[in-house]
């Protein structure tokens, strides 16, 4: 298994993996509205390739704003090819992505997911952080410096500007 930074050349293979792993219409989810028109945090996005060069898994991060003053990274999607599930690759991708984010100085990461799975990485429910509807507030999770952070999550464009979703 080789883990590498995602490049533009990987895009279509990674998108095909996400299509395979997630339900049709995945791009209609509220978290995708936060990604529209926003470049991904390319240095944090990873692709895992098997020995034959196939995409076995991928993880992406996107900059967002919380309230009117806090920057964060939105983690997701993260996916593992069905033939590679159960090998620990998802946990490896997640931890590797978080390690890269920490080294890059990212102060906070959020995601929409299942608390029982993500809590083992240190994620906890975020009270007062509001994802665009119809996101279940119980599934809004964060890690690291969320003390005092409150507000609606919006798209962030280069230069630190926030755009409503």
Describe the fold and architecture:
There is one protein chain. The protein is α+β, with helices and mostly antiparallel strands. 21% of the residues lie in helices and 33% in strands. It contains 4 helices and 10 strands. The radius of gyration is 15 Å and the shape is globular. The chain starts with a strand and ends with a strand. The model has no long low-confidence stretch (mean pLDDT 92).
How big a fraction of the residues is strand? Answer: 25-35%
Q: Kindly report how far apart the N and C termini lie.
A: 37 Å
Shape: globular
What's the helical proportion of residues?
10-25%
**How confident overall, as mean pLDDT?**
92
Rg result? 15 Å
* Number of contiguous helices: 4
DSSP strand count: 10
Biggest beta-sheet profile:
10 strands, mixed
Which segments are poorly predicted (pLDDT under 50) over 5 or more consecutive residues?
A: none
Q: What is the succession of H and E elements?
A: EHHEEEHEHEEEEE
Structural class, judged by helices and strands? alpha+beta
Topology readout:
Blueprint: E1 2-5, H1 11-21, H2 30-33, E2 46-49, E3 55-66, E4 70-80, H3 89-103, E5 108-112, H4 115-118, E6 124-125, E7 129-130, E8 140-144, E9 151-157, E10 161-163
Parallel strand pairs: 4-5, 7-9
Antiparallel strand pairs: 1-2, 2-3, 3-4, 3-9, 5-8, 6-8, 9-10
List keywords for this structure.
single chain; 165 residues; 21% helix
